[in-house]
Amino acid sequence: MTAKPAHAPPPPFAGKQNGEITLATSTRIARIVAVSGSQAVAIIDAQARERNEGRIEIGALMKVETPRSMVMGLISAVTTPMPEDRETQTTDIELVELNLAGEIVHDDMGLRAFRRGVTSVPSVGDAVHLAQWEDLRLVYANPDSAAIDIGTLFQDSRVPARLLIDDLFGKHFIVVGTTGCGKSSALTCILQSVIAGHQHARVVMLDVHNEYPGAFGEMAELVDQNNLRLPFWLLNFQELTAAFVSTDHWRDAEIEILSEAVVISKRKYSEAQSSRLRRTTEAAGLTVDTPTPFRLSDIVAFIDDQLGKLERSQATTPYRRLKARVETLVADPRYSFMFGSLMIEDTMTSVLSQLFRIPTGGKPVTVINLASVPTEILDVVISLLSRLAFDLAVWSDGAAPMLLVCEEAHRYAPTGHSDEFMPTRQALSRIAKEGRKYGVSLALITQRPSELDPTILSQCSTVIAMRLSTERDQAVIRANTHEGALDLLDFLPLLGDREAIVLGQGVAMPMRVKFKTVQAARLPTIRHEGFSKGWTNTDFDTNALEEVVRRWRLSLRAKS
User: Which one of 303, 319, 337 terminates a domain?
Assistant: First the structure.
């Protein structure tokens, strides 16, 4: 019996039998001919083509046999640099390009386990196999990890597609795709899957189109113009400035007046509510950003008092404009959820309890309908909600983890350096940069990632990319995705409805998935069913139009 040389490599990896590593049942279909960094090139065996071992297509998972592990790679390209030539009797040379992303190894218990990263780099001549069903389940559907099923794997519909809960929700994620590709349905599928097993979750959805009132059934608290209460005194000074102050050359003067008026009004309210022994110390510590109640009537009274002291030679315009703006907001019924309360009292605890589900009470989702909020103040409202979510997480030491879902995120967190939507951009940027330290995370939904603030976008650790047609949007996703399988993004224009390419930390490996079908009763609301149906509808007549006008006017009717 000939002894094995001391320098001989260990046998190929697959499983263990009698203390030896043996190869799992599969047939070699290619061999490695080039390796460069995280990319490898393999040449397909002619015998494998004749045996028809399986379809080799973009995005499929293959495994490379190395001495210490099975390296897993995604197919990024298939080429034939030398087509068959009958005259010279040469056959096709077919090449497969692989993006190496992880490997299957033995864990401490001797069991097969998948891990990201490659420690045993393939070399020229290593055998390449198509991943089997068992390999796909081990990589994409590991039952030992906290995960949710959101659909099936494109490569094999028998394998569930899973997202890792802690990495997905703890490090921000974004869903991108063109109109009509199924973004809202995909988001609904993800959230329905997670709350089904986590009824004490906290999800706050900013619904700018009123699409989700029925998506979560009895597990959602619906907040709309009828029960939305956001007291104006919860606004910080930047948000108050965005609501009350103009943007022309009188802006600086108005800001100075408003700052003094707010501090004096807060002190006046605090003194009226506190005992005589506490008045001096509490009032002295108040600032323009202290979240304590005050009355807008005291703001107006302060302005009137200052106007009475001004000489005719002094400019009264900033005082009069600021006063007019305050009185307009108070009188307009569209702003009643913020400026319309006749009674001023400290309701901060009840406001936070309603918005952020403390306690959850069997309703882990808050759907906030922002469709009826005037666009002039939408920035202020979203800024306030985002800031309150972050501040609550900070002051509670992360005791109430929550997910803030931002539909149409590019609308109120746009790219650029203008003052427009500045409070919201800053509030969301703060969550994006620091939120995971305190248990508050972002889910951004947009059809135009190129128009989204790049600072916020760059903090998303998981990208769920659905069909994207424009090159500009595709380029932005590539630039903000740190992943070895970026070639998969080249196929974004070809994805079908409810299909997506998922990259980042929220998945075990990059994958192409097909989302589950959501029940019709739980789908986001689609208000327009298409022109072919709409143009055959005869029910919308003059009487229906009169009802529309009545409701339209009622929503804008001034208070009596």
Answer: 337
